Write the structure tokens for this entry.
Amino acid sequence: MPSFERCVCAALVSASLAFAAGQAASRPSAPETVRARAFELVDAEGHVLGEWRVDAGGNAIFAMRNSAKDVAVFASTSSPGGALRLYSSDQKEQPGVEWVAASLGGDCSIKNRAGQAVFRVSTSPRDLGGELVVNDAAGLPSILLTRSPAGVGQVSAQRGNAGVWASPDK
């Protein structure tokens, strides 16, 4: 190859490398931190299907909507704890499943269409430990596993005004 052609090839390769290096250097780098008051996830038509924001009370909110634009997942924070609520497409007003953390403990509920807890696992409202409650259709406890005030485990079952309970001796 004559020296002129080598010079042209070398010049083209050098120019290409210099151009590529300049392009790489001019690309903005990813920011270390992104700050905003809200983020929105939108579909192709611009409908908001997800959001992450801070509400007026200063609590962080995360919500996702289904294709019908109904809230399906909702998570929030508050001063004593946080909450996660899952909604079904036919149960828009009340969550079907709800987890709540509070200053005295936590609660997980599975609810019926009326919003009444049918099944609940939680810390006892009397601060006796944990309890598991299965409610009837009216939202009244029908089976309860808990601790007695003496700190002994107990099981109770009720139907209307009648009920039985068992607690082993300490």
Q: What stands out?
A: The chain has a mean pLDDT of 78. Residues 35-77 form one domain. The longest helix spans residues 3-26.
